[in-house]
User: Which sequence fits this backbone?
């Protein structure tokens, strides 16, 4: 079969595929080749942030990459955060604070916040810091305030004094 | 009752899957062997199609079919006129695929079906079309000038609808008024722009002759009925499911060409066919709203009592008018807001233009009406020299005046506008405290001393919500799990119905909200109902759930009384079990009642075996299921409201204007919201805050920028600026609960409210920040350039 071989580790599992056309977007590869439909596509031009994943640790927009560019990469998607039924602290905080309504933008926010919190590693975030941190993701439902609360709560849960 | 869940800020059931990326949105639904659709859309606003050549496209490997209007046979049709009205002289709706002429940029001309969306898009590029350009109609006022070009070549003009409505005697009131003035107010075009675009997946099974459709629609039952009758498929063999929806905002309630073409293609090909819009298609192919130009005259006494309004406005309906006069009529009826206004005359003309068709988007005419009346109230306050809050107080409908009927003017439900209840003055007082109205002048002076311009503005609104005709609910206690299953015919579009409806059932049945499974948007689960629009889901479906769950409760008590051989009056239903008052050990679980309610043939689990130890659920000497009885612990109930129930709110903001750059910043925001009795205050707050953010977009960031040729110049998220978290201020929310007397639960709708007053209060706050320059905002949305232009203009006028 002609095409380009792509070898990626997604949520800890190695996938080896042959991509028939190099123009296949990474977002489409994750969603339709690997069946990981938690990564959403809102604009396909890199503005809304719905398709945010972590690629070698960085929060990136999977709609702005081709699948072939991810060859050799280690990827984490929204499906890789919870442990079975147990929610990741960021996911639990979004639910606790009503930081989502339709939920379409939520995976992108959660992945962006995951990268951000890992970088800052502090429990005491200000509203301004959080708003700046999430200012690459669009939400059309919540008005953001509860997302800000969720991020602060997640930071406390993950990095606060026990 | 011990278990009170109604009215509590309970976490949402749906979140457990959504936060994990385990939702099932339209594009997430996979079927075996699907083909994919892309559309050729008109690049011109108005043109005659002289020839189309699809031969190269058809020959592209991977292409399954390329279809033009002539290929559709008996389905070469126009979309239905969803809401007819006699005031439309030549109602036009869109043909599924263009025939002869195109009327807006984005109109569907050809449908390509291919093995992948990538190939389908390639094939679209290979279709060769020759167009003869025709003049485009874009400007509303020019469209009505004599001799103006027409949006449709075969129509005599551009009037989509024209209606005059009069309440009281406005001319008499104007003749005796002390204060009379005219305001011209404009509001630009915008759109819902949900994060998820629209899409359809259809799968026709030629063996069973069943059509299964997944559709991002707010009205799956409308789609089911329409597809069944169009394709001659039995009603019960068409199943429409709306999976998780990534926002609706009204845009997804419309009927679009793809919603018929995709199922049609699946029937033709015998394969699943999928179409999902990309973002530019959503800008160009899904509907817009908002553009209106009002000329309002206001008549008042010298004390500021409004005697009458006369409003003439133009409403842009785009290239077609599928939703009739709904938006213009809602704007007309909401114009007097929460004020008495004994007399008014409102005349509107809906105008065809060569732009994307217009149908309701969250707010539906109300943000426009609110901007108009609230700008006029501000002006009245300024003219007679009273505080802008005080002028509202002098005109509010008082609590003792409800129900308040506005003459014979009809609301969108076709019934006279009758405001059912409200506490407008209490609402205002709460707002003034929340925003810090009374100490603001000192704050403003202190800021000015530092060279900063800040201003304060407020706006009120009322909103007719919870329209009929009806909704239903099927409530069942499952015999296998003991959990409560609730199905209703409308859909959750992201607003949390899986929780709020669960709370209503949980309250009636004494169970936890998490033990109630709510199914929305599956026409096989509940084949009767209407749709999600007009802030009606919680009101109408909510009360239907209460009706059905109440009946299930009565059945549960009756059956349990038989099983426990006790009197019904002695029983308590609580914590998932029915027990004898004072003897909690003498109980039967709800699950056991559900099992016993279905005459058993064998016991399938421990609970079923336990259920057999009790007396039968029904007393009968004859058949186990006596005449008139049905198996199961379940009921179907319906609720039909007498007319719309009127929610209300008052919002205020403090803004800072940079007079050198025209930049605007919201410093703080307060909202008081009254949607009657709240089912879940957390969800209501979320609805209001989200609405406010959308309103902020509509006040300062978002607009559909059409040029004079009818090209949409900003059809992407790079250029259509939805606010990020950095543009939306922290909000302080206060709730009032003035129950609706119209329904047993006292509920009013909350979905659209948040966005309504934002342009109005923003305009007021900008005025206030620039009061010494004499700036008066008369159009929305603004942006830094247009605000700077207003400032420069005012400065020049002063110089």
Assistant:
């Amino acid at each position: 079969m002609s095409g380009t071989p792509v070898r990626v580790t997604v949520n800890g599992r190695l996938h080896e595929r042959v991509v028939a056309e190099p123009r296949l977007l990474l977002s489409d590869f994750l969603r339709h080749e690997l069946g990981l439909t938690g990564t959403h596509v809102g604009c396909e031009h890199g503005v809304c942030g719905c398709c945010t994943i972590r690629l070698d640790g960085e929060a990136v927009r999977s709609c702005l990459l081709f699948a072939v560019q991810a060859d050799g990469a280690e990827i984490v998607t929204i499906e890789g955060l919870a442990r079975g039924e147990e929610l990741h602290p960021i996911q639990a905080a979004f639910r606790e604070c009503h930081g989502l309504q339709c939920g379409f933008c939520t995976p992108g926010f959660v992945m962006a916040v995951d990268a951000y919190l890992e970088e800052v590693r502090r429990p005491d975030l200000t509203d301004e810091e959080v708003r700046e941190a999430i200012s690459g993701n669009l939400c059309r439902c919540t008005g953001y305030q509860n997302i800000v609360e969720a991020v602060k709560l997640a930071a406390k849960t993950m990095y606060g004094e026990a | 009752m011990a278990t009170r869940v109604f009215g509590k800020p309970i976490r949402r059931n749906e979140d457990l899957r959504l936060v994990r990326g385990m939702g099932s949105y339209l594009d997430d639904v996979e079927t075996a062997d699907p083909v994919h659709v892309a559309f050729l859309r008109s690049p011109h606003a108005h043109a005659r199609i002289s020839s189309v050549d699809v031969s190269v496209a058809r020959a592209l490997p991977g292409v399954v079919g390329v279809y033009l209007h002539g290929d559709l046979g008996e389905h070469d049709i126009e979309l239905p006129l969803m809401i007819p009205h006699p005031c439309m002289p030549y109602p036009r709706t869109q043909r599924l695929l263009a025939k002869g002429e195109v009327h807006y940029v984005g109109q569907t001309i050809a449908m390509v079906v291919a093995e992948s969306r990538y190939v389908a898009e390639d094939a679209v590029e290979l279709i060769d079309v020759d167009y003869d350009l025709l003049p485009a109609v874009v400007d509303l006022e020019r469209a009505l000038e004599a001799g103006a070009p027409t949006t449709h070549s075969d129509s005599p003009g551009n009037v989509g609808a024209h209606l005059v409505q009069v309440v009281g005697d406005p001319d008499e009131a104007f003749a005796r008024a002390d204060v009379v003035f005219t305001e011209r107010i404009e509001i630009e075009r915008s759109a819902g722009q949900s994060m998820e675009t629209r899409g359809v997946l259809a799968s026709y099974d030629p063996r069973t002759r069943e059509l299964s459709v997944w559709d991002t629609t707010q009205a799956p039952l409308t789609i089911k009925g329409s597809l069944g009758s169009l394709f001659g498929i039995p009603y019960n063999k068409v199943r429409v499911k709306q999976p998780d929806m990534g926002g609706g905002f009204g845009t997804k309630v419309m009927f679009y060409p793809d919603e018929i073409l995709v199922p049609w293609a699946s029937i033709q090909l015998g394969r699943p066919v999928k179409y999902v819009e990309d973002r530019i298609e959503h800008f160009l192919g899904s509907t817009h709203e908002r553009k209106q130009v009002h000329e309002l005259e206001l008549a008042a006494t010298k004390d500021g009592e409004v005697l009458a309004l006369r409003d003439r406005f133009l409403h842009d309906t785009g290239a077609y008018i599928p939703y009739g006069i709904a938006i213009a009529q809602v704007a007309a009826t909401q114009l007097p807001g929460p004020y008495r206004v004994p007399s008014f005359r409102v005349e509107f003309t809906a105008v065809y233009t060569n732009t994307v068709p217009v149908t309701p988007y969250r707010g539906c005419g109300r943000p426009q009406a609110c901007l108009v009346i609230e700008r006029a109230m501000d002006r009245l306050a300024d003219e007679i020299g009273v505080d802008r809050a005080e002028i509202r107080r002098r005109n509010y409908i008082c609590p003792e005046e409800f129900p308040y009927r506005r003459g014979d003017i009809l609301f969108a439900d076709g019934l006279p506008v009758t405001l059912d209840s409200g506490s407008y003055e209490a609402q205002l007082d709460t707002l003034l405290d929340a925003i810090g109205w009374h100490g603001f002048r000192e704050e403003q002076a202190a800021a000015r001393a530092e060279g900063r311009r800040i201003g304060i503005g407020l706006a009120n609104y009322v909103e007719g919500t919870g329209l009929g005709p009806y909704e239903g609910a099927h409530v069942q206690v499952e015999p296998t799990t003991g959990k409560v299953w609730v199905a209703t015919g409308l859909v959750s579009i992201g607003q949390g119905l899986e929780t709020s409806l669960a709370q209503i059932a949980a309250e009636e049945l004494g169970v936890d909200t998490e033990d109630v499974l709510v199914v929305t948007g599956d026409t096989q689960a509940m084949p009767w109902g209407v749709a999600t629009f007009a802030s009606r889901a919680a009101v109408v479906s909510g009360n239907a759930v209460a009706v059905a769950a109440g009946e299930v409760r009565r059945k549960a008590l009756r059956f349990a009384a038989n099983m426990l051989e006790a009197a019904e009056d002695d029983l308590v239903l609580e914590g998932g079990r029915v027990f004898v008052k004072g003897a909690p050990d003498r109980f039967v679980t709800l699950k056991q009642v559900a099992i016993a309610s279905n005459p058993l043939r064998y016991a399938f689990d421990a609970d079923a075996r336990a259920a057999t130890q009790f007396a039968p659920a029904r007393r009968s000497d004859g058949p186990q299921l006596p005449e008139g009885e049905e198996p199961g612990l379940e009921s179907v109930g319906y609720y039909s409201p007498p007319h719309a129930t009127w929610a209300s709110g008052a919002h205020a903001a403090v803004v800072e204007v940079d007079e050198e750059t025209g930049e605007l910043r919201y410093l703080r925001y307060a909202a008081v919201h009254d949607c009657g009795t709240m089912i879940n205050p957390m969800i209501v707050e979320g609805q209001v805050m989200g609405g406010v953010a959308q309103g902020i977009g509509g006040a300062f960031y978002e607009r559909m920028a059409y040029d004079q040729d009818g090209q949409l110049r900003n059809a992407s998220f790079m250029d259509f600026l939805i606010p990020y978290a950095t543009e939306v201020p922290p909000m302080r929310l206060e709730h009032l609960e003035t129950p609706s007397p119209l329904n047993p639960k006292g509920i009013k709708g909350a979905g659209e409210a948040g966005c309504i007053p934002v342009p109005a209060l923003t305009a007021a706050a900008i005025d206030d920040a620039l009061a010494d320059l004499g700036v008066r905002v008369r159009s929305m949305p603004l942006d830094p350039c247009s605000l700077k232009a207003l400032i420069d203009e005012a400065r020049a006028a002063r110089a």
